[in-house]
């Protein structure tokens, strides 16, 4: 049974979050705030609702929401439960958000369906994660297509992914793809060998205002250290994803060259003058 005082606040919309919303609609009806926010959602979007919940003595359960509220806005140590598996909470040995919600709701093991297992594996380990639990190519392709659609990837983005892939080039160990879309998932999915793509060891996708990387944990760790404030997650330390917003025109090319050096060469040295590390 759900904790009677829990009130859930849902973060950025993807397939996992949509499935979490379905679980909560069934097992915690009327105890969810879901504004269907975009990925990278912040707690301030729910500030008014959160303050009401805290004042009423309820337990806010924050699902994949970046806490951007002032330190004194409320007592975080006593008032909230945080559910996430990105950044410092990511890892192959860490439960996904949907697994954490499932446990929080107190659901029996028999309620854990094949679909929920696929959604969790996809969110932790992408296509390789689904392959590890025995997913067929058809299952992997269907789950990834559904995830992209839930995130708002359009038909135009899908077409652009095909064009951008055709113009890819290698920069050391990394496949380098530049796209006019603001999403990388359609490219990362189609590039994957397990669903019929050309495959990659490391993949960099450059978008108009941001950049994303996919590959081994060594690269993800290097990029994380090199660019404070970036985001990352996945099946770490084995493999994962990383991303960040790109700076303005004056610094953009320099930033991309630095990323290319790290992604293309496993021996790149990253960090500032006070924290340099040989990888």
Textual characterization of the structure:
By secondary structure, this protein is of the alpha/beta class. The chain folds into two domains: 6-132; 154-278, Diaminopimelate Epimerase, Chain A, domain 1. Helices cover 41% and strands 18% of the residues. The strands form three sheets. A six-stranded mixed sheet has the order 5-6-7-8-10-9. Strand 5 and strand 6 form a beta hairpin. Helix 1 (15-27) runs parallel beside helix 4 and helix 7 (155-166) packs across helix 8 (185-191). It is globular, with a radius of gyration of 19 Å. Residues 268-279 have low confidence and may be disordered.
What's the main sheet like?
A: 6 strands, mixed
Low-confidence stretches: 268-279
What's the end-to-end separation, in Å?
A: 47 Å
Tell me the β content.
15-25%
Oligomerization status of the protein chains: single chain
Number of domains: 2
Number of E strands: 12
The number of helical runs is 10
User: Helices and strands, in N-to-C order?
Assistant: EHEHEHEHHHHEEHEEHEEHEE
Outline type: globular
Question: What distinguishing features does this structure have?
Answer:
six-stranded mixed beta sheet; globular; disordered C terminus; four-stranded parallel beta sheet; 2 domains; alpha/beta; 279 residues; Diaminopimelate Epimerase, Chain A, domain 1; 10 helices
Briefly say what this structure is.
By secondary structure, this protein is α/β, with parallel strands linked by helices. The protein is built from ten helices and twelve strands. It has helices at residues 15-27, 47-55, 76-79, 97-104, 114-132, 137-151, 155-166, 185-191, 217-226, 249-264; strands at residues 6-10, 32-33, 59-63, 81-83, 169-171, 174-178, 202-206, 210-216, 231-233, 239-245, 269-270, 277-278.
